[in-house]
Amino acid sequence: MITRFAPSPTGPLHLGHAYSALMAHDLAQADGGTFVLRIEDIDLSRARPKWESQIFDDLTWLGLDWPTPVMRQSDRQAVYQHALSRLWSEGLAYACTCTRRDIMAAVAAPQEGGLHLMGPDGVIYPGTCRPDGPAPNAPLPDNMALRLHMDRCLDRLSTTTFAFEETGGGAPRTITFCAQDVRETIGDIVLARRDMGTSYHLSVVLDDAAQNITHVVRGRDLQEATKIHVVLQHLLGLPTPIYHHHRLIRDDTGKRLAKRDDARAIAKYREDGASPADIRAMVGL
Ligand code: GLU
Hints:
Elements: E1 2-5, H1 15-30, E2 34-39, H2 49-61, E3 71-72, H3 77-89, E4 93-96, H4 100-107, E5 118-119, E6 122-123, E7 145-148, H5 150-157, E8 161-166, E9 173-178, H6 179-185, E10 190-192, H7 200-210, E11 215-219, H8 225-236, E12 242-246, H9 266-271, H10 276-282
Parallel strand pairs: 1-2, 1-11, 2-3, 11-12
Antiparallel strand pairs: 4-7, 5-6, 7-10, 8-9
Helix pairs in contact: 7-8
Glutamic acid (GLU) is lined by residues 6-8, 40, 204, 218, 222.
């Protein structure tokens, strides 16, 4: 078993992160496996060295350890570009110049009552930039947002059902979903953001595969996004790990903790004299 914790160094780790990291670590340890840490710093406009060192510090304090060197996404642009080039040359990715405002204007058509569908990658893309023609005879463009041509991908995969094993939140089970569901409720997701050269979805599937992750432990908020990851794994010929989506740690008002919840930062509890065992107890481990 190889599990991982993959934080973004864009703020302090809070109790929700502690829960995820401890659970991933404990599962691997109970199985004689390995717990791996990965720094997800593709968003260089938000990642900060101070948050990265705080991550190492907090996790060490919690009693976790992991193999080094630690994989950092900012070192892996070449891998992401390689995958993008491949999808691009097969006509499965296309450049998109829409702003958020363009997309909202296109989807909120008055004749449809201004309603639009949200998918796990945000508002379902209305297809403004989607090409009908064959694969382009041009190299992968630089500095452009790229989207996945979902219809074409699903036709190419010629499978009508997808599945992954889920072990979180109850008995282990197989979650299945169909290609039609992906077309209608997910659509043309962003594969690469203009300012990043990649996206969370693309990087996470490539990196989980590169690190031979067998069990992805993360919050329930990402369960729907897992459908995107499974489709990408099929397209890129990567294995699908087992997923363990755990419950979310909430504040007293029932709201899910976010990076801005500094009051729940592990560092704050440490300062106030809490022990690692106190943190475990607080998250119910
Ligand atoms: N970097 C992502 C986050 O912090 C990781 C999500 C995942 O575990 O797949 O939310």
